[in-house]
Design brief:
With 124 residues, this protein is an all-beta fold. Helices cover 0% and strands 48% of the residues. The strands form 2 sheets. Strands 2, 4, 5, 6, 9, 10 and 11 form a 7-stranded mixed beta sheet that branches. Strands 1-3-8-7 form a 4-stranded antiparallel beta sheet, with no helix packed on it. A hairpin with a 4-residue loop joins strand 7 and strand 8. The N and C termini lie far apart (40 Å).
């Protein structure tokens, strides 16, 4: 069974940057699409980004396009989310999740495995 652990969250000022990591264990990551999701207090969970199993295709929510970059290193079983120019509205718990279905099919939809999340707080 695939297990995912996020790290890299913390407190950052508006305009700052953070890089989140999602490390997989249990099985190879090579066949899984990985998505990043977030949930702010009192809000529904939303999709942030998705990367295909090969890393060749990426998808972003409009709210983060141009500021966030998703990438992966399958040899290290790690997926990254580089977040630049952070805004207070980016404050949320960020989760990584995986599935065998491609990102190209409703990438914000159902995922099979989830991490427990890492908190990102953007505040001055």
């Amino acid at each position: 069974q695939l297990q995912l652990v996020e790290s890299g969250g913390g407190l950052v000022q508006p305009g700052g940057s953070l890089r989140l990591s999602c490390v997989a264990s249990g099985v190879t990551l090579d066949y899984y699409a990985i998505g990043w999701f977030r949930q702010a207090p009192g809000e529904e969970r939303e999709g942030v980004s998705c990367i295909s199993s090969s890393g060749g295709s990426t998808y972003y929510a409009n709210s983060v396009k141009g500021r966030f970059t998703i990438s992966r290193d399958n040899a290290k079983k790690t997926v990254y989310l580089q977040m630049n120019n952070l805004k207070p509205e980016d404050t949320a718990v960020y989760y990584c999740a995986s599935r065998l279905r491609s990102c190209s099919v409703d990438w914000t939809g159902r995922m099979d495995y989830w991490g427990k999340g890492t908190l990102v707080t953007v505040s001055s």
